[in-house]
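dumping the sequnces here before i forget
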Amino acid sequence: MEELNSVNVIDLDDFQPDPLLKPGAFIDPNPTVIGTSFTVDPVVMASPPPISDKKSAGPSSNGNSKPVKSTASPAAAAVDADQLPDWMPPGWTMEHRVRASGASAGSRDKYYREPGTSRKFRSKKEVMHYLETGTLLKRKNIDDAGGSPVNESATPKRKKSEPKVKVSLKNFNFDDIPAKVKWVLTDIYEGSWRPLTNGVDRVPESAKQEWTAAYTYLTIQNGGKAAITAFV
Amino acid sequence: MGEKSTLENPTPVVLTGTAREGTAGPAIGHVDIGISDSAYLFRVALPGVRKDQCELSCEIEHDGKVHLQGVVTGGELAQKNPKTVYHTNLAQLSPPGPFSISFQLPGPVDPRLFSPTFRSDGILEGVVMKYRAPGVPPCGNQFDPA
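..and the predicted 3d for all of it:
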């Protein structure tokens, strides 16, 4: 591990959180080996993708860029020896895992296990690096090299829900109208105005957004289909 | 001789083009009001009211009264060289200082549903939604008759 210090020294602060992992989520680094303790690269341990031990996940229809050999394998299926890639050293095992939760649920991951230590690797690149140098490949290097299956499968399958632009109009009472509202120009660059009900009382930001939403609803052509449903 | 005649005749200002379409009067406070099916639009001329020093506020009342308040900034060139004194020969612009403008929209409004814009050309534009009696569903588009 000494040579890591020269080449692969990485400040832990540089690591970005795994996009596949929810904050606080953790994964048993070696769920199939019970009671076996072994050293795991802290980096790998910190950011493996979500894995479920459920065996029920069916074939997935996600956009994995790498073809998966087995089409109906269980969530964590050991691959038969005759299906192993030819680069894999003898004795090593490979397994497929289907992610059961998280934004990338349904994605498949390959894991390669070294016999004896049960040390787990997530890509051919990691395995080859380990075989050549005897050291673990840091995740940062994988990212830099690009093209590793780990990172290809990191593409989220569905877009994150867009930030809520439309505020619900349900709470906006069209009949409960204040006697007067004073609008004060607050930001000349943004052109934003702050409303003060009855001339003095500050309007909460949430209420102001409702007002804006109601105004937008009334002004935008067709009223906005999504907003209309708020009245139904 | 030419200068003297200017002094004696204080309105040598000639308007052409759309400037003639306006009316003579105080430079600040010319108001246009437009009506649509669901909203009122007003435009107020605020020349000399700088965006960054205007302290502009616009109070909208439920019955349609609108009160504008703000401050007119003085001229800059005169301030740059305060030793030179210019005697006012003709004064049509509003002098520096606070002002207020009040006018009445044609009908009741919802003062919450107001979208003001103070344009960089010194025109304050605002759209206020008309007040609808309770139970009347909101109209979808202020610009098209529903």
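The interface with chain B takes residues 174-175, 177-185, 188, 191, 193, 195, 199, 211, 214-215, 217-223, 231 of chain A (CB under 8 Å).
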